[in-house]
Amino acid sequence: MGEQGDARSGAGGVAGEVPEAALGALRALADRVLAGDRRACARAISIVEDEAAGAERLLEALAPAVGRARRIGVTGPPGAGKSTLVEALVLELRRRGRTVGVVCVDPTSPFTGGALLGDRIRMDRVATDPGVFIRSMASRGSLGGLSAKTHEALDVLDAAGREVLVVETVGVGQSEVEVASTADTTVVVVSPESGDGIQAMKAGLMEVAQVFCVNKADREGTDRFVRELEAMLELAHGHGAPGRPTWSPPVLQTVAIRGDGVPALLDAVLRHQEHLATSGELARHRRRIARDRVRELVERARARSFWTPARVAALDDLAAGVDDRTVTPYEAARRLLALPT
Ligand SMILES: Nc1nc2c(ncn2[C@@H]2O[C@H](COP(=O)(O)OP(=O)(O)O)[C@@H](O)[C@H]2O)c(=O)[nH]1
Ligand SMILES: [Mg+2]
Q: 123: which residues sit within 8 A by CB, 6+ positions away?
């Protein structure tokens, strides 16, 4: 019964239903992205971000050109200086002649709909450089996952020929941390300010870090903070698995507002990428990312096809019943799953 309907609309959920006339426009847009056109990139990312019809057709047209860019994830507690550091990193990459794409995932408040921290990045020093493309994305209201959309935005920039991609996410909340950890190298930024170290541990940041950056090294207490961090890392990484090439996350210090330590930080990132390539870990890592990603797309498509207007209406009714205790949440879920499309 429901299964057939699911399969049909599920397929529609993946490919999207795009009128013939719109397909031509999408192909033209894809060609402009492939030629590196900035405005086309901005348009393409909007289509992806809005989950608009045709997004998947567009991404499929770009797919053959994806995979060349190096990807750097930057995450850490709010206020650690991530955006400032990303700007400084971008300046350094530009000095080294690289073109750069930046995607910042902004946590938005469910109450105001605005940026949670009020800091939609500006990155004034790099914003007008044609070799730099910067985009903010809201993390709220994405059906079936933030990471799929962020991946897709990065893929657009990858296909457009950007050599290095940087993605900044706040290191609170699992999905945000996950997004940064899908990069080739994840930089965890912490500051010596009170609580950052503990917050980083709680949020699972220690596990995803390939490079640690203690930013605001101009602040008092930096040396002690660095020693504590190194001691913690020693405990966690002290004994690598035998017979395997291992990577011990180095701890770098920066003063992002002045650019101090940023070239050394970039060198550490590049050393990690070299390690990935020579150890064969890059292939394993990218395979795992690809697997997670396909799984997420399947889940997104299923969620889209499942929540038909009739089922949403039934959900509203059942929720009232759950609230009145006339039906348990489990029974409500079973009834929803048993409904025909
Ligand atoms: N003293 C000092 N302040 C910094 C440094 N880096 C960033 N900041 C400041 O810290 C605040 C938060 O920076 P921001 O980049 O927005 O942090 P994010 O929330 O992690 O992206 C801003 O006021 C920055 O100017 C630094 O190295 N030293
Ligand atoms: Mg920021």
A: 83, 86, 87, 90, 102, 134
